[in-house]
Design a protein that fits this description.
The protein has a single domain (about 65-305), classed as Uracil-DNA Glycosylase, subunit E, CATH 3.40.470. The chain has helices spanning about 55-60, 65-80, 95-100, 100-110, 130-135, 140-145, 175-190, 190-195, 225-245, 255-265, 290-300, and strands spanning about 5, 85, 90-95, 120, 200, 205-210, 215, 250, 270-275. Strand 8 (about 250), helix 10 and strand 9 form a beta-alpha-beta unit. The strands form 3 sheets. A 4-stranded parallel beta sheet has the order 5-4-8-9, sandwiched between helices. Strands 3-6-7 form a 3-stranded antiparallel beta sheet, with no helix packed on it. The protein contains 11 helices and 9 strands.
């Protein structure tokens, strides 16, 4: 028998009369959705363009800041992702763009308000980073103390007992985020120097976990579910590349590099795709990641963009 699937758009609440459990994550339930973009909430079909220097024609015709257009693309992606029925092995789905929308929107509005030559692309939220703060690789202290972002963090509709969302009260530190933001803090001095030419974004906005709380990456999914995630996230990435006028994508890890190259090739975009090693301590040979990555950025000719 095929494995039982969970519908991401259905609620997982215990029932006295049933042992069945399902997942729900509804954007309509999010109380923090930007009031500024309500007039454009029907903007769901944004055509791709083969011209990398121009944003999609539909978004360009709407008089909104770049940050608001980016938030619209992300909102559209979240709406589509919640239609996916995941296998029963995926017991928990966290979408910090929904329950941590206040801080996520603050990140976008503060640091992505114009064109970006370089896009650093991560894979998806980690349990102690973006899942807690709404910021990619969002280790608590770096988000609060260096990026100067803080705000209300809600809850996913269903939490894994060992991976609860406590927002800025979280006592765990995401090593990947500490390493990544720490490197840029060392090289750039201020966030303004980092974000002048670049931006950090995740390919997929949702975190997936099994019953024990083990992270399930998009790369580990199989069959139709993986195909759908790739299709939807590829479409959104293409729109973001064009919206920001990106010239260079740096995949943080090989998975992100591969997805970026696929999107660039499929849409005939004039974008160079590079990569750096993922800062996870679980990556093989990842000792002294910061020094190795700093040298890698020099070798790629990118270090000049991150000088203090």
């Amino acid at each position: 028998m095929p494995p039982k699937k969970r519908n991401y758009s259905e609620c997982d609440h215990p029932s006295k009369n049933s042992n069945s459990k399902k997942l729900k994550l509804s954007i309509s339930d999010n109380k923090n959705i930007l009031d500024d973009v309500k007039s454009c909430e029907n903007l769901t079909e944004i055509p791709n363009s083969t011209e990398n220097n121009n944003a999609s024609s539909t978004l360009s015709s709407v008089q909104l800041p770049v940050s608001e257009k980016l938030l619209l693309i992300e909102q559209e992606l979240c709406q589509k992702l919640q239609t996916i029925s995941f296998p029963s092995s995926v017991a928990y789905v966290y979408n910090p763009i929904i329950y941590a929308f206040e801080v996520h929107a603050m990140y976008v509005q503060t640091y992505c308000n114009g064109p970006k030559k370089i896009l650093f692309l991560g894979m998806n939220p980690g349990p102690w980073g973006m899942s807690q703060t709404g910021v990619p690789f969002g280790e608590i202290s770096m988000v609060r103390d260096w990026l100067k972002l803080h705000g209300f963090i809600g809850k996913p509709p269903r939490e894994q007992p060992d991976r609860k969302v406590t927002g800025f009260d979280c006592k765990r530190s995401e090593i990947s985020g500490k390493r990544l933001w720490g490197l840029f803090k060392e090289m750039c001095g201020s966030p303004q120097n980092l974000f002048k030419d670049s931006y950090i974004h995740n390919y997929c906005p949702i975190a997936l976990m099994d019953h024990k709380g083990r992270n399930i990456t998009p790369a580990e999914l199989k069959g139709e579910e993986q195909k759908l995630i790739h299709e939807l996230c590829d479409q959104a990435l293409s729109k973001i590349i064009q919206l920001l006028g990106v010239k260079i994508i740096v995949g943080i890890g090989r998975f992100a590099e591969k997805r970026a190259q696929t999107v660039v090739n499929a849409n005939n975009l004039s974008v160079q795709v590079l990569w750096i090693t993922h800062p996870s301590p679980r990556s093989v040979g990842n000792q002294n990641w910061d020094q190795k990555t700093k040298q890698r950025l020099h070798d790629l000719g990118l270090a000049e963009y991150f000088s203090n």
